[in-house]
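G., the chain you wanted modeled:
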Amino acid sequence: MNLLKSALIFVGILTVLGISINAYVQDGELNSSESGSILADTIRNRSVATNYRIKALPVPANLDFAGEPVPLEDPDVYERMDRELLVNTYWQSNALLLIKRANKFFPIIEPVLEEEGIPEDFKYLAVIESGLTQAVSPAKAVGFWQILEGTGKEYGLEINSNVDERYNIEKSTRVAADYLKKAKARFGSWTLAAASYNAGQYGVDKQLDRQKVDEYYELLLGEETGRYVFRILALKEIMNNPEKYGFDYEEEDLYAPIQLNKVKVDTAVENFPNFAREFGINYKTLKIHNPWLRDDHLNNSSRRTYYIEIPEKGQYPKLD
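Predicted structure as tokens:
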């Protein structure tokens, strides 16, 4: 019975692989040890390329960032764009996670950019800066927009042991928008404004003057800034056209936005775990939606007004 079962399994596998079994059947008998050896050799020798194809990707004929065209007729620009499309398409797990997260966080970022007069394409800058996570870089840049402490304070964010508003998505988006508007006024180009978010406005200005050019695509830059805008363009293209790049998912596979209510707080809070339970949630959930609260209490000696976001009922399991 075991020999028959082994033979049937072997035949089934050969059939799936598209291999003729006639060569392995002699005198109506199939020796199990021989079949195992033949199968192992066959699988070893069979190229993985039979079922998995890595295809070259056509670079779209027309691309733009914030309405500014990408000069793809320049061979160097074309190759750099091709590189980022390939890298980001075939890093499938990362791209799919970004698509999932975008469904949750773009509805927070998009209205702020619109209110601030910043082109919507800049939401993809946040994607490449942080992967839409509350990341902390080796240089201690923080949050979706990777803001350094000095920059955050310069632009009016509160940063101390209790509160760090760089983790507040709405407020940090406004800081990024303010920076980008100033950069646009300085350079006259949204593309250069985007590049300056990585290299600094002085750094971009210095290279423009040194190289005697006036466009990002004409600059010879270091690896990081040289790839920066192309990475934004690639994620914009992929995330706007996921099916074209092989991403297959349903609406319910995406991370859903959480409906939140704002609770006004203008006093000290001695214990946030207890505070959270008053609203039917645990401390973890409170911190997920208010990552700018950096401790389990709030001193608030100045009696400043804060708005703490609490998920509407029914979106998290009910506490015991």
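Residues 261 and 310 are 5 Å apart (CA to CA).

Shout if anything looks off.
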